[in-house]
Write a structure and sequence with these properties.
The structure is a single chain. The protein is 72% helix and 0% strand. The protein has 64 residues and is mostly helical. It has one domain. The longest helix has 22 residues.
């Protein structure tokens, strides 16, 4: 979707009394979710099991 169209749709969804900070926050979230979906499609992610094992090794077992 074009960036301009995304902004228009966002502004249509937000209340009339929203602040510029509200708009910026929602744009940030849209951008980050979009980036994450692109990374997932391109297989630039770490499998859940690998993250779980790394966290277990570092935090639960105290290993470096």
């Amino acid at each position: 979707m074009e960036a301009k169209q995304t902004v228009r749709e966002l502004l249509d969804k937000l209340p009339d009394d929203c602040t510029l900070d509200d708009v910026l926050y929602h744009l940030y979230v849209i951008h980050r979710v979009s980036s994450g979906l692109e990374d997932a499609e391109a297989r630039r992610t770490v499998p859940h099991e690998e993250v779980e094992e790394e966290l277990r090794r570092r935090w639960l077992l105290g290993a470096e």
